[in-house]
Amino acid sequence: MKKIFIGLLIAAAGAGVYFFLLKKKKDKPEAGNVNKELIIGKWKSESYEPVKDSAQSTLLYEFQKDGIAYRSLNDTAKADTLHYSWKESAELFLKKNAADSSGISLKVNKLTADSLQVLGSDSISILFTRMK
Q1: How close are the terminal C-alpha atoms of the chain, in Å?
Q2: How many other C-beta atoms are found inside a 10 Å radius of the C-beta of residue 44?
Q3: Residue 28: predicted pLDDT
Q4: Model pTM score
Q5: Do residues 70 and 12 make contact, with C-beta atoms less than 8 angstroms apart?
Q6: How far apart are CA 26 and CA 109, in angstroms?
Q7: Per the CB 3.0–4.6 Å rule, which of 4, 15, 37, 95 could disulfide with 103?
Q8: What is the 3-state secondary structure (H, E, C) of the chain?
Q9: Per-chain mean pLDDT for the chain
Q10: Cβ distance 80 to 70 under 8 Å?
């Protein structure tokens, strides 16, 4: 009787470990499995760089379907025009002109319907939230 009970206990523990590892594998996002369409829209983030004339600066980005992005500071009327493209699987590449080969490369760590987390070349993580 004890052997049957121990065998059932071992089988239950094995099944528990199997389902735990299966769930963990499903929850873990695969690198490069980013839904690139989710970037379309308006995003805001608190600036990680100090701005001279502002106590608190908010960076605003508006990504459009045609590969153009507008960047402004503190919701000002003046906005910079940028061009963006996807480099490799989960890297966002920002540049001043579409023909430029140089620009800023941002690794996308997380892209959901309401948040965007990128990692810059200087290893600073920036979190953007979607504007409603």
Answers
A1: 63
A2: 15
A3: 47
A4: 0.64
A5: no
A6: 17
A7: 95
A8: CHHHHHHHHHHHHHHHHHHHHHHHHHHCCCCCCCCHHHHCEEEEEECCCCCCCCCCCEEEEEECCCCEEEEEECCCCCCEEEEEEEECCCEEEEECCCCCCCCEEEEEEEECCCEEEEECCCCCEEEEEECC
A9: 80
A10: yes
- 92 Cβ partners below 8 Å, 6+ apart? 39, 84, 85, 86, 105, 106, 107, 108, 118
Residue with tokens 């769930």: 23
Please give the structure tokens belonging to residue 100.
């430029």
Q: Provide the 10 A C-beta neighbour count for residue 90.
A: 20
Structure tokens at 65: 């379907």
Task: Categorise residue 45: left if φ over 0, alpha if ψ from -120 to 50, beta otherwise.
Answer: beta
| Structure token pair of residue 78 | 């003046």
Kindly state the average pLDDT of the residues 54-75. Answer: 82
Domain boundaries, the chain: 1-30, 36-130
Q: How many CA atoms lie within 13 A of 59 on its CB side?
A: 16
